[in-house]
Specification:
Elements lengths: L5 H15 L6 E8 L6 E5 L4 H19 L3 H17 L1 H12 L3 H21 L7 E3 L5 E9 L2 E5 L7 H12 L3 E5 L5 H18 L6 E3 L4 H9 L3 E7 L2 H13 L3 E5 L4 E5 L5 H13 L9 E7 L3 H13 L19 H16 L3 E4 L3 E2 L9 E2 L2 E4 L15 E7 L2 H9 L3 E2 L1 E5 L3 H8 L8 E4 L11 E2 L2 E2 L6 E2 L8 E9 L14
Parallel strand pairs: 5-6, 5-8, 6-7, 8-9, 10-11, 10-18, 11-16, 15-16, 18-19
Antiparallel strand pairs: 1-2, 3-4, 4-23, 12-15, 13-14, 17-21, 20-22
This protein binds 2-aminohexanedioic acid.
Enzyme class: oxidoreductase
InterPro entries: Ald_DH/histidinol_DH, Ald_DH_C, Ald_DH_CS_GLU, Ald_DH_N, Aldehyde_DH_dom, ALDH7A1-like
Pfam families: Aldedh
Amino acid sequence: MTLPGTATIAGSVTDALAACGVAPDRIGGDFATRTPITGGALPGATGDDAASIDDKISRAAAAFPAWRDTPAPVRGNLIKRWGELLTEHKADLARIVTAEAGKITSEALGEVQEMIDICDLAVGQSRQLYGKTMPSERPGHRLMETWHPLGVVGIISAFNFPAAVWAWNTALALVCGNTVVWKPSELTSLTALAADALLGKAVAEVGAPADLHHVIVSDRAGGERLVDDPRVALVSATGSVRMGREVGPRVAARFGKLLLELGGNNAAIVTPSADLDLAVRGIVFAAAGTAGQRCTSMRRLIVHSSIADELVGRITAAYGTLAIGDPEAEGTLVGPLINEKAFEGMRRALDEAQAQGGKVRAGGERVLADEAPEAYYVEPAVVSMPGQEAIVTEETFAPILYVMTYDDIEDAIAMNNAVPQGLSAAIFTGDQAEAELFVSSAGSDTGIANVNIGTSGAEIGGAFGGEKETGGGRESGSDSWQSYMRPATNTVNYSGQLPLAQGVEFV
Ligand code: UN1
């Protein structure tokens, strides 16, 4: 497969940035950006320094009272317009996502669709910021709960979903009446500028306060400022467990609120009654799709010993047909790894797996290295393991699927749960009792537990996140909006008397 030249990619990125309305002064700076498609340089971005970061947080804090006091359904109008602009510029934004994150076009378009979907959800949510009322134990009293905005929400996001994860957080944070400061991955600054510019257009068109959103182009120092700034009421951070370990205690030390969505080490159990055609498709998308660079990517397969050979044979055959290369080319299913570090991580994991008794059954080799020595394309790997060895319990952000066998469903569930991470899991089975057990409290300990679909590709309607080292936060649908607000309990006394609760007598 021939790869496009860096100049061609940079040209189409420049056009797409202009179409999204990125201000010319934000491009051409010395904050380096590159494309994993060739490893070559894209137009630089204009970086932020300590003073400009401080200024952005100050402005977002100053914009908060006016936005807080704007009725929630009116705040929803902003998100409605933003969703329309995302629909209009879907292809432009997807092109930048592909150029900067290396996602195949279909997945890049899917990422923008996910942004549009959360906008739809958030618009509806703007009329449903429900609080409960409870019966008071005292006559002539009303007990109720009201939900209020927090202030500035700081968002830290990763390269692999360079725009959608920000949108999940931002759409809800804004309808909930907060203002937002975003620190995207330094690997995807251009996507961030384009995504933020579209929000900026919507803000200007509906007449919302201009300072209610800001994006910081910076390395980790920018993220640290956001984390440590007491004006940032909530830090929502998506990324590695290592990052979460640093962010968590720092935010907790100043009693800020936290929403963490960290690593996954997602498994699928395949039982003897599973529809194997369906299972293979679900497994290959989840394990090889996005070149294994989703936090929901499938990294472990726990298969019943009676069907292990057949299933692994079918998966390796399917892997042999995966087109690897230019993510924008028709038919490509696996684009590049993000950078050399990711490739080294994959190589190290494969070495360790073999040292721990693993056998590579498919893939694992680098391809297209002659054509693009600074880009890192790999064949997704399938590795049989004797058991759940140390390397299998780590999240390696690359397409490696470790295969283990089981004989007893209880053991399979125990293996599913025997890793430090707890994001997503799946069972492929035709047996209803097994499926129910898997999704029960005695089943998978993950935040997402699926039946007869893979571990990745969640819809935005459900809450997204997981337990243990995944950090415990929930973003996106269901009641996740509550993370962006503070509840207040109100007791209203209209009795003209002052009875005390719990029967206490006083004056
Ligand atoms: C991530 O990888 O950080 O469920 C987010 C999925 C996507 C989101 C992934 N909807 O795979």
